[in-house]
Amino acid sequence: MKTNHFYTKPGTFLALITLIALLVSACSSARPMAGLTEAGGASPALAASETEAPTPEAAAPAADAVNVSHAPDDIPAPLGDRPPQTVRVDLEAVEVNGVLANGTTYNYWTFNGTVPGPFLRVRVGDTVELHLKNNDGSTFPHSIDLHAVTGPGGGANATQVSPGQEKSFTFKAMNPGLYVYHCATPNVAHHITNGMYGLILVEPEGGLPPVDREFYVMQGELYTRGSYGQQGHQQTDLQKLLDEKPEYFVFNGSVGALTDTAPLQAQTGETVRIFFGVGGPNFISSFHVIGEIFDRVYDQASLTANPLTDVQTTLVPAGGATMVEFTVDVPGRYILVDHALSRANRGLTGYLEVEGPENPEIFEAHENMEMGH
Ligand SMILES: [Cu+2]
Asked: According to the model, what pLDDT value does residue 373 have?
């Protein structure tokens, strides 16, 4: 395993505890697909999520489970300095069995099959024609509320759409910023925890300052009947959802999405921008990158206020976002966490892997002698 660059100040008890917690988490986050292809039958209890029927033991992992996690580097290119225009956005609500963790599957509800949904990118002044289709294989109606919308329900009223149907509405992007969108069909918390959230960036006039790398990361939590790590196909536990007692916390939809499947990657000397949002539905994030300092935090995802500078950890509310920027100077593995670190033991870790020449002027580990006993 690579050397972990955790804290530059050695020897504190807190750092040691953090190290142990993260190592445990990192070791448990591997998620090979083996075992997921042996289960018989398709989609056991696909539509049972809204029922109260008890399932004392989880069914076998869903044989058709796919990777639903959105790749963190899958972002549309910056818009540049273009004038406002009319933009058509097509989204589709899709209910799909996905891999939640190693040997554990879950019936996700998604926009376009991924968690989070597509990263939408428009500019201030654009007129957005939003079409929401509900896949004809769906069991439930779905909808969309974009926080970038000025209008009733953020679009939710106009888009309550039954399986196999499509609805649409038009809005003008009035305010630049980075906004959460989510399904807003009751029970809304249930639709969000199942994966129906994403981010829409409304670029300010002239666009954002150029950076070398942009990443898309969202945090959410899941409420399964089985406890964290239990194998098999997991149902939603609506009582745990109501009680706000999640079993899983995840970046981009699943355990291991940003560690084993698709870690963030950069080269030394590059500037990195992370679009970070919290789908939730319930928990705020104390977003932190271990071993880095945010050079700039666009607090509350406000792109028109001056950014905060030199920030260690930033609060992101449920249904909120932030944009952070920093330069990576030293090669190694940097770990994305919510600094409420118990959550790292419930799946909430991501890696930023930085490659390039060592930079001993900024960081250098010493070759210490082993202490004999
Ligand atoms: Cu929905």
From this structure: 54
- 291 alpha carbon to ligand 1 midpoint, in Å? 37
Instruction: Give the chain's end-to-end CA distance (angstroms, integer).
Output: 26
Domain ranges of the chain: 58-271
For residue 322, report the distance from its CA to the centre of ligand 1, in Å.
Answer: 24
Contact 180, 321 (CB under 8 A): yes
b/e 246-257 (16+ beta carbons within 10 angstroms → b): bbbbbbbbbbbb
pTM of the full predicted structure?
0.84
Distance 141 CA to ligand 1 centre (A): 6
112 CA distance to ligand 1 middle (Å): 12
Cα separation of 357 and 260, whole Å?
A: 24
Which uninterrupted H or E stretch holds 27? helix 13-28
Expressed in angstroms and rounded, the spacing between residue 93 Cα and the centre of ligand 1 is: 7
* 183 CA distance to ligand 1 middle (Å): 5
Report pLDDT digits (tens) over 305-364: 999 999 999 999 999 999 999 999 999 999 999 999 999 999 999 999 999 999 999 999
Domain 58-271 -> CATH class: mainly beta
How many angstroms does the Cα of residue 27 sit away from the middle of ligand 1?
33
Asked whether 223 and 177 are in contact (CB, 8 A), the reply is: no
Residue environment code for 310-319, b if the CB has 16+ CB neighbours within 10 A, otherwise e:
ebeebebebb
The residues with which 201 forms a beta bridge, in sequence order, are 121, 178
**Which range is least confidently modeled, 30-39, 262-271, 333-342?**
30-39
